[in-house]
Each structure stands twice: as structure tokens, then as C-alpha cells.
Amino acid sequence: MQAHTAKDVNEKIEQQAKRRVLRAAGTGSAGISRQIQELEDEWDIERWLETNASALAFTGVVLGLLVNKKFFAIPCLVLPSLFQHAVQGWCPPIPFLRRKGVRTRREIDAEKYALKALRGDFDELPTAINGDSIGRARKAWETAND
User: Fold this and answer.
1) pLDDT single digits (tens) 90-144
2) Which of 7, 13, 44, 69 is most buried as measured by Cβ atoms within 10 A of its Cβ?
């Protein structure tokens, strides 16, 4: 998605995330946890595309069956766009959604893990002493999956 988005839009989305993380530094652990939960609930661009495409296609089918067969044109326009997105990673609604600030899962996760680091979730990771990198890796996995 980012590769198919204007550079200024990507920069704006990144700057907004950075500001939110910096602002969270003063909110304490509870505020950071609340912000992390909001990120868990945030819809990424894939979910927006899938939801909108399926709603439009379903509406077109229902209207085609109940009102007028010309409404079958709606799924005939929407579904190829969804297919194009699956194959190429781009479809016509993406620039609009990105300009509205809809983020990729990677962008949401980057903010989430920055907040987790700020909250101190990764402070407990032991350093690799005497080759105990396996123990560090296990702790990292547990921490990342909390």
C-alpha cells in the first residue's frame, strides 16, 4: 500500500503516528495501554477494502434481484477492483482511503510496538549472557504476544 501511495501522504500518516507516541509519553502506563487497545481495534486498509467491496457487491446483487437487473453492474465493477488489489496490491479506492488516513497493518503495528516499548514491555528482556540467546528469544516472543 505504501508503495502505491503518494510520498506526502505516507509522511503525513507517519508524522501523525509519531506525534501520538510522543504525546503518550506523558500519559502514564494506563494511558498508553488505552492507546494500544485503540490500535488493536483500528481497522486497517485491507479491512476497509474488503468490507466496502463486499457491501457494494452484495447490495448490487440484492438490487439486481429485487429492483432491476442493471444493478448487477455494481458487483461487475467492484469485484474486478478487489481482484486487482489482491494481485497488484492496488485498486482505485486506495488513494482516497490513504488520504483519509487509513493505515496499513504494518503502520498500526509500528505505533503499537513503539507504545509497548514506551510502556516498558521490553525492559524485562534479559541480555544474552553466556550464549543464552534462546532464553532472550523466548522472552521476546512472549512479550510481543502479550
Assistant:
1) 999 999 999 999 999 999 999 999 999 899 888 776 665 555 666 666 666 676 6
2) 13
Q: Which amino acid is at 38?
A: E
- Residue for grid cell 448487477: 72
Cell, residue 66: 429485487
Q: How confident is the model at residue 77 (pLDDT cuts 50, 70, 90)?
A: very high
**Rounded Cα gap, residues 29 and 123, in angstroms:** 14
- The secondary structure of 68-85 as a DSSP string is -GGGGHHHHHHHHHHHHH
Dihedral sign for Cα 112, 117, 120, 125, please: positive
d(CA 44, CA 32): 20
